[in-house]
Every structure is written in structure tokens, then in C-alpha cells.
Amino acid sequence: MAAPPIRAFDDLQIGERGLGRTVFAGQEIGTFDFEIVELLSTGGYAANLILIRCFGAEIDRLGGIAYGMSGSPLYLGDELIGAVSMTTEGTDSSYGYATPIEDMLALWDLPTGPPAPAAARGLLDALPVGTPVRLA
Q1: Looking at residue 88, what is its pLDDT?
Q2: Lowest CB count within 10 Å: 35, 55, 99, 128, which one?
Q3: Domain segments of the chain: what residues?
């Protein structure tokens, strides 16, 4: 199977709509609709992010982007633009973030070895937390 053509982050436009692919149940791959809401250049471990709004019958049934949808590929036409990567706790769960495909492909070029100690990493290099952080 040949790799799909890709579209670079810099070539994306706010308002463009496409299809995402994921498994909603069992082993059958289903689709959902999405729209690009915003294009964010953030720095840190995720240099660029795509803010998306997902919609369609299955997204409505689930109540938004579900845990486990991370990694679901996103296409504009036949071009791969990235994959669902995270949502934000306490917000409309039909909105989420996608990591652009070229940011994922760049990971192949990183050196391998043990990770740097936490003190050596900057604040913007923090990893997303899977559960809410509560301060007392």
C-alpha cells in the first residue's frame, strides 16, 4: 500500500473540511467529518497544532471526540494532513487538536536514546496530561 499524499501545515486553510477515519466499534473503520477552526504555531514539543471541530452521526452519538481517537488520521480529499492528538478538559468535546503530519514525520529524524531529565526540558516541552490537574 502506497503512502497517501500529504498536505503541509503551511498549505492548510481555516474553514477547510475533510474526513477523519477511526474505529468506533469492533474492527470496522468508520469516518467522521471535521473542519479546520484555527492553525496554531505553539513552539515546544508540538511546534504546530490544528484546532478542529468534529461532527457527524457517530461523533454526536459519542458526545464528541472520544478517548482512544488519538492517532485517527485526517484527510482533505486524498491528502493526509495529520491525526487527532488531544482535546481540552471542560470544553466542548467536539473540538480537539490535531498534530500535522510533517511534525510526526520529523520525529523519525530525532536522536534515539534515553530522554533528558525533566529539569533539562523547558516548560513548553511539557507533555499533555491524560487526567485533569486539580490544585487545592
Answers
A1: 83
A2: 128
A3: 9-107
CA atoms within 13 A on the CB side of 102: 12
pLDDT at res. 128: 55
The CATH class for the domain spanning 9-107 reads mainly beta
Residues in the chain: 136
C-alpha cell at 96: 480537539
Closest by CA to 37, choosing from 12, 61, 60, is 12
- 3-state percent breakdown (helix, strand, coil) of the chain, nearest 5: 20, 35, 50
Report the predicted TM-score, pTM, of the whole model to 2 decimal places.
0.78
Angle at the Cα of 72 from the Cα atoms of 71 and 74, rounded to 5 degrees: 120
For residues 112-127, give the mean pLDDT. Answer: 59
Least confident of 36-40, 72-76, 83-87, 108-112: 108-112
Per residue in 101-134, is it b (16+ CB within 10 Å) or e — as a string? bbbeeeeeeeeeeeeeeeeeeeeeeeeeeeeeee
Return d(Cα 76, Cα 71) in angstroms, integer. Answer: 16
Closest CA to 101 of 10, 1, 26, 2: 10
